[in-house]
Each structure stands twice: as C-alpha cells, then as structure tokens.
Amino acid sequence: MPSFPRLLSALPLGFAVLALAAPGARAETYRIDPAHTQIRFEVGAQGYPVTKGVFRRFTSNLAVDFDTPARSKVSFHVAAGSLETGTPVLDAYVRGPVFLDADRFPEVMFESAAVEKLDDHRVRVSGVLTLMGVSHAETFLVDVNRATGTASLSLSAEGRIHRSDFGMVAGLPLISDDVAITVATLADQP
Length: 190
Description:
Elements: H1 4-16, E1 27-32, E2 38-45, E3 48-55, E4 58-65, E5 73-79, E6 83-84, H2 88-95, E7 107-119, E8 122-131, E9 134-146, E10 152-162, E11 175-188
Antiparallel strand pairs: 1-4, 1-11, 2-3, 2-11, 3-6, 4-5, 5-7, 7-8, 8-9, 9-10, 10-11
C-alpha cells in the first residue's frame, strides 16, 4: 500500500505523452484539465487484493512540439497529501512517515528530460521523478490522440516504478516493490 505514493509521481509522465502528437505542427502550450484527469496507482501485497488509489491535487506545465517531439517538455507537481484509496485509515497511514511522509515531503515532482516519438500516436517520455526528497530516472509510455478540428489532446500514460528506489522500503517483500501508474487526461490550449 505504501507504493501508492510512487504512483503519484507517475502523473507527470502521463502528460508528457502529449509530446508525441502528429507531425507538422509548431510548438504549443497545453493546459491539463483537472476535471478530466485521473492519476491512478496499483500495488499488490501477498494475501491481499491489489490496492488502488488516486492523487487528487496536481499542477503541470506542458509544451508540445509536434514537428520535433524531442523539444517537447513537461513538468508535473503532485500533492502527496492528496492520495486517496477510499479507506481513510489507509490514506492516513500511506501519507504518514512510513510511506509518503507527506508532511516532510509535500510534493512529488516530475521533470521530463527526453521525449522520443515511437509512432504517430505514441511517445516514450523519460525524466526525473522526485519523491520523498529522492530523485530517480523514470520512463513512461504515452498514447496521444488529437481530435480533428479541436485544440485538445487526450493522453494516456503508463509506467512502473520501484518504490525502494525512493527509500520507501516498509513492508518489503510482502508489499510489492512494483507500483503501476496510469495517467489519463485531457489537455487544451489556453
């Protein structure tokens, strides 16, 4: 369950997916729509069902260069204390000092370092995720769809992180080190 905090960090990666869009366009700024964004995580534990949760508060900056995706940039800031699993007691425990330590480390950050176009609708976004004061390189695959005739992009990012890379080792190996992160969002031009 502590691995939920790590999923929070995956959010920035989901937004980076915007950078792999169709060729021919110029660099553009997009704004993530919080009402149409979900940052989810899943972590397993022996003898228990998979624990799922979301992060509710975040901000981002996204610049997409459709002609040269490598010039695209994304940064994401997520409030560690906004983690929710649907169980208030578990939420408080995961936000506490054993896992996220949200009082000492209130923000999870992601800053892209590279965006690689894989095809017309998919990019690989690599960058630095900072969680609990520890920075580590992470990579996410992002599906990008651009609606014809609109200034909107829909993005879906997936990645896996190891919570132990950030010093979150409580419960290992009974609670999985592997945390799946999924980000689904809609982004618009301002």
